[in-house]
Amino acid sequence: MSRIPLNSAIPNSTTPLSALSALALIASLGSACGDDASATNTEGASTDTDSASTDTDANTTGETETDTGIADGPTFWDDVAPIYFERCVSCHKPGGVGPFALDTYGAAQTWGPASAAATAARTMPPWLVRDDGTCGTFHDSQALQDEEIATIQAWVQLGMPEGSPRSDLHPPEEEGLGDGLSLKTPTFVPEIQGGPLSEFDEYRCFLVDPGLDADAFLTAYEVIPGTPEIVHHALAMPVDPYLDVGGGVTNLDVIEALEAESPDRDGWPCFGAAGDGVEINNMPVVWAPGQGVVHYPEGTGNRVYADDLMVIQIHYNLDRPELIGLSDSTEVRIELRDDVELEGLYLALDPFLDTLFDDEPAALAAGQAKVSYTWEEPIGDWAQYFGWPSMTIHGIFPHMHEYGQTLTVEVDPDGEGYECAADVPRWDFNWQHLYFLDKPVTLDGDGGVRVTCGYNTEAAEEPVLPGWGTGNEMCFVGLFVTP
Ligand code: HEC
Question: Which atom of ligand 1 is least distant from the CA of 428?
């Protein structure tokens, strides 16, 4: 086994069995490992992770002064606008991805009660992991502090006083990766595809040649959407064009066939990763609006092979009539280094998905308000296959589809017991994100991870099977790990 693919694709996938391996060993993995590594799964419908208890109840009524520390009661310009400019306006500005602006008093007033509710529910700003210190802390967190949520609540309760207008507030300056390698998607006019996950959306993949003449390491990235209003997320994935994905068919053959299905439009349809049957090496660029420049942890990077091509997936969202017909050309800037101290691997783990090729695949019962699936993988042990003394987890990428509600990742460093590493109390497919841990966790040979996914299958009439399609589910976690 060489590189085990990490896949991809739309319904009724014809993906070969090998694509379903529990681990996608990316980068310079030799042989060995693989089958032994996918060892024991504890699975099945089991313990509910009760996330209800994690909601921060920002109940400020009558307690305004204590909660916010603001003696005279908050005003927009003194207290709320600084929070909005720091945390909201990068999206909520004219032409931003947010559906309305929050950079003027009038707009903020119109959206005041909704904003108080959305921030108290922690659905805005979009940052899916619980971030109150009880389950990991994360680099560049976008989450609001409890006091900030309380300030917005108090301001709305006081009738949204304006205060004295000021003009010194701006969204955070972005440092930019101006010197990076620029990869651009063609100018493209997305069209609504319809269906359960594409009601107002199109997922489109484009092939871009980074033109490398030697292997390199991706250490940082930045995405500059051409038309921010419609670019809801972007992924970039190195693909080996000559990789045989089965029966002598290469990745490039698959891509060319997919492209040929819509010759009058650039790219090809894709959902989840690079498209049906395309096997990717890695997913080092995962971008959603508001993210800015993303740096991999100091000294680490992702190998991109000299021959690799990049597939860029763009999720276009066209949920407002005025967005239809707009074109976009998005730029992905990547910082490449010749060498790094620690070459990272991206482990793509989904034992739920892997059951698809068991005699009886796991399935989620239909019509349930709450059904969960738990798996465990003893990944600490895999370090020996990589020739590593131990394995350190730096980044966590949770992923489910539309039935997904909650996802909890626990890590057991040494066989002594699990600790909460990342918890998503309200999954939202629209906000994909790679979360970097402030404190990376090192696993010894006895260490492992346990993942519990919660789903609501009330809308399903048949049991929900694992799969990459819109109507299927995943209980996927990508881990960025290093020696
Ligand atoms: C990363 C971009 C981004 C940031 C940052 C962001 N928003 Fe949003 N917001 C959106 C988008 C896009 C929508 C439309 C719904 C969706 O796609 O989730 C939205 C929807 C909303 C809504 C209406 C829907 C709802 O949930 O009630 C409110 C209110 C809102 N945002 C307030 C805020 C506030 C307040 C902040 C800052 C504290 C903020 N947003 C930060 C992108 C953002």
Answer: 18
Contact yes or no for 202/272 (Cβ under 8 A): no
- Statement to judge: residues 222 and 307 lie in one domain: yes
Range of the structural domain that residue 296 is part of: 175-340
Cα of 126 to ligand 1 centre, how many Å?
A: 7
> Considering its fold, how many domains does the chain have in total?
3
**431 within some domain:** yes
Final residue before a domain boundary, out of 313, 340, 367: 340
Report how far ligand 1's centroid is from the alpha carbon of 100 (Å). Answer: 9
305 and 251 inside one domain: yes
**Coil vs helix vs strand at 256:** helix
Question: Residues 33-92: pLDDT tens digits?
Answer: 333 333 333 344 333 433 333 333 444 343 344 455 566 799 999 999 999 999 999 899
Give 296-310 pLDDT, tens digit per residue.
999 999 999 999 999
Pocket, ligand 1, Cβ cutoff 6 A: 84, 87-88, 90-92, 97-99, 102, 111, 114-115, 118-119, 123-126, 144, 289-290, 430
Q: Which two tokens stand for residue 359?
A: 């005699």
Report which residue type is found at 196: P
Per-residue b or e along 249-284, where b marks 16 or more CB atoms closer than 10 Å to that residue's CB: ebbbbbbeebbeeeeebbbbbbbbbbbbbbbbbbbb
- Domain membership flag for residue 49: no
pTM to 2 decimal places: 0.79
